From TrEMBL:
It comes from Methylobrevis pamukkalensis. PANTHER family: FAD-BINDING, PUTATIVE (AFU_ORTHOLOGUE AFUA_6G07600)-RELATED (PTHR42815). SUPFAM superfamilies: FMN-binding split barrel. It comes from the Bacteria. Gene3D superfamilies: Electron Transport, Fmn-binding Protein, Chain A (2.30.110.10). Transmembrane segments: none annotated. This is Pyridoxamine 5'-phosphate oxidase. Residues 32-150 form the Pyridoxamine 5'-phosphate oxidase N-terminal domain. InterPro entries: Pyridox_Oxase_FMN-dep (IPR024029), Pyridox_Oxase_N (IPR011576), Split_barrel_FMN-bd (IPR012349).
């Protein structure tokens, strides 16, 4: 087995992409991209830290929670989390981001690449308020590329197939796993307790 270290080595092994795959990259969002984003309740957001390490985070809310401001601009609210703010710190150091939009029941996905800026404009954040609570910041993404990704990965994963779902009890609760990983002495939070706590702090 050899380590592959050059584009030439990789192309020699994989060949060239078919013309349709090479041509499908759009410089802006078209009607199909906008429709997918409007129906998507879940996006995976990637960024790169100042140390060069890649980072990914899941973001989800009601379908269309990522706003399409125009064909080259997306707005993503930063709803309450654990305050690690990894993605925001990464964007300060390196504005390049990638987004992967998923829709339950649809095996194709939408990939978007661009640069991001963090905004705390009161009127902008207020547009994403839930009840009385608005996010502290929003991420404004300036789109450079957008393209559809084929269904093969999700088909292989059977991601939306009810028969492929595991019973949650097959894996310890997050509280139990964190207790082991952090060496905590306290009684672990049960899965039910965690879900109840999260439900009260979603926004």
């Amino acid at each position: 087995m050899a380590k592959l270290t050059s584009a030439e080595d990789l192309r020699a092994l994989y060949g060239t992409p078919n013309p349709r795959s090479a041509r499908k990259v759009l410089p802006a969002l078209d009607v199909h991209c906008r429709r997918i984003i409007g129906l998507s309740p879940f996006v995976v957001l990637s960024s790169t830290g100042p140390d060069g390490l890649g980072d990914i985070t899941p973001r989800g809310d009601a379908p269309g929670f990522v706003e399409v401001a125009d064909d080259c601009t997306l707005i993503l609210p930063d709803q309450p989390g654990n305050n690690r703010i990894d993605t925001l710190l990464n964007v300060v150091a390196n504005p390049g981001v990638g987004l992967l939009f998923l829709i339950p029941g649809m095996d194709e996905t939408l990939r978007v690449q661009g640069t991001a800026e963090i905004r705390d404009d009161a009127d902008l954040c207020a547009r994403f308020a839930v009840g009385e609570r608005a996010p502290k910041t929003v991420l404004v993404v300036h789109v450079r590329e957008a393209y559809l990704h084929c269904a093969k990965a999700l088909m292989r994963a059977r991601l939306w197939d009810p028969e492929a779902r595991i019973d949650r009890s097959a894996i310890p609760s997050m509280g139990e796993m964190l207790k082991d990983q952090l060496g905590l002495a306290a009684t672990a939070e049960t899965q039910a307790e965690m879900l109840e706590r999260y439900q009260a702090t979603l926004y």
